Amino acid sequence: MTLWADLLVPLVLAAVALWGVARRVDVYGALSTGAGEGLGVLIKIAPPLVGLLTAVYMLRASGALELAADLLAPVLTVLGIPPETVGLLLVRPVSGSAALGVGAELISAYGPDSLIGRTAAVMLGSTETTFYTVAVYFGAAGIRRTRYTIPAALCADLAGFVAAAWAVRVCFG
User: Which helix (H) or strand (E) holds 32?
Assistant: First the structure.
């Protein structure tokens, strides 16, 4: 790597700190407050995350994910999606954190440079946690009826999964 690449993150952090000091912001206090709020968020999301990851691991240990992958393999193959990613396909619309766990497990099992590892990584960046996003935004706006939002968003997720698998095949063979 070049010297600039090695110094980029420290320079950005130093620039932010200097900008805060120049504007007379208590940078350390702001950092501490943000870290405390981050821990509060962690405490809120940890139980559902543990539950989702436990459910995924139970499905995998019971053979249900393998059965689902076997049943969906013909359809997934036609769509160009590796059947091994079925766990990610099922979890991603529900929880981003659980999907990251499943994606990390796929990358660990198959390797980051494998077709499956690359596809999982691109799928994580190409899709959304549909149910969480709809709940947060519609809840904030006070909308009670989602109408066609969920089916349309799940179709967009499917398009993201297919596009991710296609992009990985095109770019990496």
Answer: helix 27-62
